[in-house]
Task: inverse folding
């Protein structure tokens, strides 16, 4: 834990992150993104807008890709949460991570965690998505660097 | 030499850390004992600061210190050099733009810092403003800065020169075209907002800074200047950077603020700008007005160009002069130009200062130039491709600006781009409203900037573990330049690239370098890196020569091995030598050996020039005005391609940013304040907008470039706007002179050719009154603004709230009903949480009822009546199997609401109850609905393209809930429980105004009921990007026979404060003998009674189209057996 547990208006809550059980005290007014980044030091999840508009903060909550920056932390009580830090197993990269590297699907990398999580949720539900399906699933994720071409390619490749 | 890494798609060195989330960006830096900072910004575009009282703020919990301008040295930022230095690190005495930094706080938590910043009392006296170019140049304009000698009021720079013999050249002119071109301001929108972590050690006097900057060199220079520390005591550290695009190429103000707070507090300080602050005060591109004339001779040779340009500098000078010279450079150098006359002014306005953005103004001027090239081709009856090839620059040319074109494959680029897009097959042969266009660009590579920018130093260290470390003060903001440097040195040393690491930015470890700007790194720093490689070999040879007692010249080096001249058994690998001798570090230098252009910009500006052509195919929807880019072909002459995947990526990215500039990106202002401060209505391209893009490179070896390369990443944006605009012109037969080419601009042109729709405003009795008030607005507005400022209520802003989850209905009702609780229901939070930050909501307590019985259930009975719990998410509803069976139109409809991530959180009740999205309201402008009845509606005179055309009165915000029109058309009702009992509310009757409902304090929606529908349902929505709020939407539910409808309900979204029923349209559709003409009449009747505002007339045509499409689609969806009845 990076910051001492805050005490005012804090509630103890339990949930799992990347398969790990976590229980900690959480302030009512923080978001899931802040909880992950500040209290659990999982800074792979980025905040690009804080308003649900850019997708940089996308994490998977109970199977669904959601913007963590507008999800109140207390509302994920008991949930199963996946973040970018949970994608690779030991040193073995997830096929999506591999495909993102091989296809140059990131430049600055700030949108990458969100992209990967949106794509992970998609492939879980739909292992062989069409190009249109991929566009639909990633429409909430802004990338300013790549123009999306190589991201589309990478997701298609990972789905093969 | 064998080239192993160059020319290969080596993945970025930072790949692993970027895909696993392990990489550290400034946002992620955390130091022990770190404080958090918050900046207080000016709420005025121009005002005198009469006093700042920070006593209360200083006494607040957790506050460590408060700073203002008085804490800094008396120096201004250097920025563009002493002649232009006009900005202090924080506002002194006067603020000159909305968002300018006035004070800053450091506290234990971000919330405490925010709260304390709100508690600082600043007394302002508002001053007259000049927020547009015209206003700033008007004779009675207020003086934004004290006048400069020899310059007119509000002019920061004046450029005026002739090149070549204009008069003589004009003698052979047979034809000229002339026009004014205008574009506004775009934001770079780096995904990582600007942020800084600073640490000051009082004992050593050292200041360390972590910040996402493209130019550590400038950061140090500026900090030394304004903080008053010796340069040697300031160290910039290495971080990953979440995007730059020029937007981080100067030293942003928040770096100095965080640094000063760290100095004052003696503790590390972190300052992260919110996206909203980034919009207010992060630097932008520069707006321009360009009056351009191009004259040609009988063969089409450009004999002269004339340009009068105005560049909007904003309130302070950062990179404005570069924008002035960028216009001149293209004017004289894009194609062969015999002479030119150039006049430009850099003009101060009370707006956010311009900085730099990819292309540095080139995309805008190239758009103007290339528009006229097309016009001339038209007039001469030439094919645009052939004509461009004829006038293209050639190797060996020396331009009238003194540019010496060495390698140049522009004509080939043009032909190849045309081939790739299918020019021959398509030009003139495409269906109506499809078009193709082409444009070219030129960009300097290895520019002669100023003395500091012409050199580079790169450190190279051989380490005992056999690896090599390249150290550079340039900063890789994601372009992959670190990887390129590793590739260059690896090949120089004939070693695998895997052996190389790059430490960028760190100014303590690495030698001086200007940084990453102006497309210079590949060239200047690349050459320095190559030299470092060479120096390392020399150094090793020198040492081996001593050991071996031979001459260094006798030692051969190949494939990583130093060969002993006589005894092969002594041969040694380069990776072994640091073990033998210890770490060895060399520094490679490179300097551009070329004189700077003169004061008029004349002279060879760069070592070489990159060229490219882009061809674009677009499709225009004639009913909505929406331009869709279908295909792009980009062919670049970049010298040698060092890393194909990286360069392709840069190209795609540049093209998409260019498409944004061409079609959708635009900062909208009210009194100098940017109002569309969100990624919803500041529209950057998203993945659905990505067309098919073909990218090719023509390799012309550039002798001086590292391994023959030229600059490549930045300029891929340069030709895009022009190519898109030319394609649009080809599609619609009209040339646009304002950017972006919005749907409303296209519709206005197309509609001018057709009869206007009859709006019949008398059909709404109040329209006469509304029209009268609107007519009086220009006269009344200033007084209303004053009155509002005096009497309007300030919405409370909260930094913190409580959140509870109700476990039974009664406690929920009690909690909500208790006024003192100031409680508000939360669904998914997708509107509420951003709204709290914007100051729209200020609840002390959020109450979630999602856990109550039935709240998340969907039930469908045997007849098809659908009951939806209030806390059901949009995704849950969409994916419910019964929905697809009973109401397939609803499945498609929900798919058009927001983005998937938001649908996964947003609830049905939340969608219905969300607040309005009017940008004045959302940007906390003291308007009628934000601050109360004493205040005006800003949409009447301001930017109103988003607003209502029907039924707007005192407030013009439209209904943005999608479910509102959908459920209205479906005849759905809400089941509501409340302190006074239960009731049922028809969705149609839910609203009193946009985002305001009839629900009373303490009432809770428990479920929504959609009656069984026998016929068909369709929701048609036009939004600027898929997932945006509707500009216009129509939900149609109908039943009966295709020729004889028995029941019709139509509800409109996005055009009126409420989800209005289009009753007249409904009536027109009912009954026997339904014909195309009646459908058309019904669609047109939907806008009867409309009273559009100044900017949103397009919504009337749009709405007719949307309603027509919705009816047609619903008819198509009528069950076949029914149609056959
Ligand atoms: S940071 Fe959450 S959507 Fe942008
Ligand atoms: S890689 Fe930079 S925003 Fe996507």
Result:
């Amino acid at each position: 834990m990076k910051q001492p547990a805050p005490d005012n208006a804090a509630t103890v809550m339990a949930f799992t992150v990347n398969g790990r059980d976590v229980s900690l005290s959480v302030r009512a007014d923080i978001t899931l993104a802040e909880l992950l980044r500040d209290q659990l030091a999982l800074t792979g999840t980025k905040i690009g807008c804080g308003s649900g508009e850019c997708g940089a903060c996308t994490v998977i909550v109970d199977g669904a890709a959601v913007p963590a920056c507008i999800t109140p932390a207390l509302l994920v009580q008991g949930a199963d949460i996946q973040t970018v830090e949970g994608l690779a197993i030991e040193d073995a990269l997830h096929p999506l991570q591999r495909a993102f590297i091989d296809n140059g699907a990131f430049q600055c990398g700030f949108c990458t965690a969100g992209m990967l999580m949106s794509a992970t949720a998609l492939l879980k539900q739909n292992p062989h998505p069409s190009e249109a399906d991929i566009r639909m699933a990633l429409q909430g994720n802004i990338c300013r660097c790549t123009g999306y071409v190589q991201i589309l390619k990478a997701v298609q490749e990972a789905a093969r | 030499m064998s080239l192993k890494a160059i020319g290969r798609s080596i993945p970025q060195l930072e790949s692993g850390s970027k895909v696993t989330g392990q990489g550290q960006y400034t946002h992620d830096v955390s130091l022990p004992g770190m404080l958090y900072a918050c900046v207080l910004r000016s709420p005025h575009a121009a005002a005198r600061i009469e006093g700042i009282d920070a006593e209360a703020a200083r006494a607040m919990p957790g506050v460590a210190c408060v700073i203002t301008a008085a804490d800094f040295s008396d120096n201004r930022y250097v920025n563009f050099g002493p002649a232009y230095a006009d900005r202090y690190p924080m506002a002194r005495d006067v603020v000159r733009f909305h968002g300018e930094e006035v004070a800053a706080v450091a506290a234990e938590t971000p919330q405490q810092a925010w709260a304390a910043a709100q508690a600082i009392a600043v007394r302002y006296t508002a001053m007259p403003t000049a927020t547009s170019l015209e206003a700033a140049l008007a004779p009675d304009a207020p003086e934004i800065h004290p006048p400069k000698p020899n310059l007119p009021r509000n002019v920061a720079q004046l450029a005026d020169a002739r090149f070549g013999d204009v008069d003589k050249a004009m003698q052979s002119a047979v034809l000229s075209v002339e026009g004014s071109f205008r574009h506004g301001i775009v934001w770079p929108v780096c995904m990582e907002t600007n942020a800084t972590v600073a640490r000051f050690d009082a004992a050593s006097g050292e200041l360390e800074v972590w910040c996402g900057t493209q130019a550590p060199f400038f950061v140090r220079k500026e900090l030394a200047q304004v903080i008053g520390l010796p340069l040697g005591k300031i160290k910039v550290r290495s971080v990953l950077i979440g995007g730059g695009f020029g937007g981080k190429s100067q030293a942003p103000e928040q770096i100095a603020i965080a640094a000063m707070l760290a100095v004052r507090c003696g503790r590390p300080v972190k300052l992260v700008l919110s996206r909203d602050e980034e919009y207010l005060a992060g630097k932008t591109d520069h707006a321009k007005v360009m009056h351009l004339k191009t004259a040609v001779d009988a063969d089409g040779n450009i004999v002269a160009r004339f340009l009068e340009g105005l560049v909007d500098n904003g309130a302070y000078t950062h990179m404005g002069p570069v924008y002035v010279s960028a216009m001149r450079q293209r004017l004289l150098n894009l194609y062969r130009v015999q002479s030119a006359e150039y006049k430009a002014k850099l003009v101060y306005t009370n707006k956010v200062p311009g900085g730099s953005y990819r292309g540095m103004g080139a995309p805008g001027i190239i758009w103007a130039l290339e528009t006229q090239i097309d016009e001339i081709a038209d007039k001469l009856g030439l094919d645009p491709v052939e004509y461009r090839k004829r006038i293209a620059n050639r190797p060996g040319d020396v331009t009238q600006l003194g540019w010496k074109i060495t390698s140049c494959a522009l004509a080939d680029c043009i032909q190849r781009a045309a081939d790739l897009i299918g020019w021959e097959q398509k030009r003139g042969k495409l269906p109506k409203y499809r078009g193709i266009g082409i444009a070219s660009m030129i960009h300097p590579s290895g520019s002669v900037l100023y003395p500091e920018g012409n050199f580079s130093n790169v450190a190279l260290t051989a380490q005992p573990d056999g690896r090599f470390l390249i150290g550079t003060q340039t900063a890789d903001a994601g372009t992959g330049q670190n990887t390129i440097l590793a590739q260059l040195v690896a090949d120089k040393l004939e070693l695998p690239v895997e052996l190389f690491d790059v430490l960028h930015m760190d100014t303590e470890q690495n030698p001086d370098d200007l940084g990453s700007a102006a497309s210079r790194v590949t060239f200047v720093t690349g050459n320095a890196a190559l030299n470092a490689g060479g120096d390392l070999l020399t150094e090793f040879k020198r040492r081996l020569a001593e050991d071996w007692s031979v001459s260094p010249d006798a030692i051969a080096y190949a494939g990583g091995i130093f060969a002993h001249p006589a005894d092969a058994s002594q041969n040694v690998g380069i990776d072994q030598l640091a073990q033998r001798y210890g770490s060895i570090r060399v520094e490679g230098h490179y300097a551009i050996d070329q004189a700077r252009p003169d004061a008029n910009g004349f002279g060879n500006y760069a070592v070489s020039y990159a060229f490219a052509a882009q061809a674009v195919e677009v499709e225009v929807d004639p009913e909505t005005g929406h331009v869709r880019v279908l295909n792009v072909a980009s062919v670049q002459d970049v010298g040698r391609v060092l890393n194909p995947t990286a360069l392709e990526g840069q190209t795609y990215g540049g093209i998409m940013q260019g498409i944004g500039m061409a079609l959708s990106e635009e900062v909208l202002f009210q009194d100098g304040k940017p109002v569309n401060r969100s990624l919803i209505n500041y529209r950057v391209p998203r993945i659905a907008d990505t067309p098919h893009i073909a990218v090719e490179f023509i390799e012309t070896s550039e002798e001086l470039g590292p391994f023959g390369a030229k600059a490549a990443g930045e300029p891929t944006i340069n030709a895009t706007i022009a190519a898109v605009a030319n394609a649009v012109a080809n599609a619609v037969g009209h040339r646009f002179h304002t950017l972006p080419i919005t749907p409303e601009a296209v519709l206005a042109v197309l509609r001018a050719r057709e009869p206007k729709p009859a709006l019949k405003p008398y059909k709404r009795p109040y329209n006469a009154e509304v029209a009268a008030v609107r007519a009086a607005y220009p006269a009344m507005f200033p007084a209303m603004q004053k009155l509002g400022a005096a009497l309007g209520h300030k919405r409370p802003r909260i930094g913190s709230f409580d959140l509870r989850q109700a476990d039974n209905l009664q406690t929920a009702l009690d909690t909500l009903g208790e006024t003192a609780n100031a409680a508000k229901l939360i669904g998914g939070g997708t509107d509420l949480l951003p709204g709290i930050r914007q100051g729209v909501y200020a609840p002390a307590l959020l109450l979630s009822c999602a856990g109550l019985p039935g709240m998340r259930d969907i039930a469908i009975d045997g007849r098809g009546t659908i009951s939806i719990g209030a806390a059901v998410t949009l995704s849950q509803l969409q994916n419910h199997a019964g929905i697809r069976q009973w109401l397939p139109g609803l499945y498609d409809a929900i798919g058009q609401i927001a983005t998937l991530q938001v649908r996964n959180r947003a609830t049905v009740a939340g969608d219905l109850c969300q607040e309005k999205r009017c940008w004045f309201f959302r940007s906390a402008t003291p308007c009628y609905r934000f601050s109360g009845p004493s205040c005006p509606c800003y949409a009447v005179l301001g930017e109103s393209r988003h607003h209502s055309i029907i039924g707007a009165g005192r407030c013009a915000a439209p209904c943005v809930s999608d479910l509102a029109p959908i459920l209205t058309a479906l005849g759905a009702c809400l089941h509501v429980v409340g302190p006074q009992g239960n009731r049922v509310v028809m969705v149609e009757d839910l609203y009193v105004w946009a985002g305001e409902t009839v629900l009373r304090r303490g009432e809770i929606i428990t479920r929504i009921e959609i009656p069984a529908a026998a016929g068909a349902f369709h929701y048609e929505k036009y939004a600027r990007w898929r997932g945006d709020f509707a500009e216009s939407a129509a939900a149609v539910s109908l039943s009966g026979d295709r020729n004889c409808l028995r029941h019709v309900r139509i509800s409109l979204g996005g055009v009126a404060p409420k989800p209005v029923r289009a009753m007249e349209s409904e009536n027109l559709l009912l009954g026997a003998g339904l014909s195309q003409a009646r459908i058309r009449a019904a669609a047109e009747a939907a806008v009867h009674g409309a009273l559009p505002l100044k900017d949103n007339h397009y919504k009337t045509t749009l709405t007719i189209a949307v309603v027509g499409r919705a009816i047609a689609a619903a008819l198509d969806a009528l069950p076949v057996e029914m149609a056959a009845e």
Q: What stands out?
A: The radius of gyration of chain A is 16 Å. Residues A 106-111, 143-146; B 191, 243, 478 surround FE2/S2 (inorganic) cluster (ligand 2) (CB under 6 Å). The CA atoms of residues 115 and 141 of chain A lie 6 Å apart.
